Amino acid sequence: MERDAVPYLPRGVRLHFDAVRDAWVLLAPERAISLDPVGHAVLSEIDGTRSFGAIADALAAAYDASPDQIESDAAGFLRALRDRRFLEVR
Fold first, then answer.
1. CA dist., res. 88 & res. 67, Å (int)
2. Band of the pLDDT at 2, cuts 50, 70, 90?
3. Cβ–Cβ under 8 Å, residues 74 and 42
4. CA–CA separation, 18 and 23 (whole Å)
5. DSSP class of residue 63?
6. E strand or H helix at 79, and its extent?
7. How many H-runs (helices) and E-runs (strands) does the chain carry?
């Protein structure tokens, strides 16, 4: 994913806290993905206005991690979501 790409959740897709499972999930029509803490951290930063680079920089600062490592891991995760139509990019 390019640093200037702006990821966003398409219509009908949202983050949701499932109280029964005590876990965050990504919901889409007739589909759901359970999220681990890292997946939730990445998706909670997506607001449809900030670029992928800005999101990666914010996560690197928040978790005191290497920006390159955050970018690499987050890009793979977001690409997989985009391939499954849980995420779109402008």
1. 22
2. very high
3. yes
4. 5
5. T
6. helix 67-83
7. 3, 5
pLDDT digits (tens, 9 = 90+) for 43-74: 999 999 999 999 999 999 999 999 899 999 99
Polymer length of the chain: 90
Residue 33 structure tokens: 């993905």
> For 2-11, what is the mean pLDDT?
97
Bridge partners of residue 59, in order along the sequence: none
pLDDT at position 48, please? 97
Q: Which of 90, 76, 71, 78 is nearest to 26 (CA)?
A: 78
Angstrom distance (rounded) from CA 26 to CA 80: 13
Cβ atoms within 10 A of the Cβ of 14, count?
A: 12
Sign of CA dihedral 47, 37, 32, 72: positive
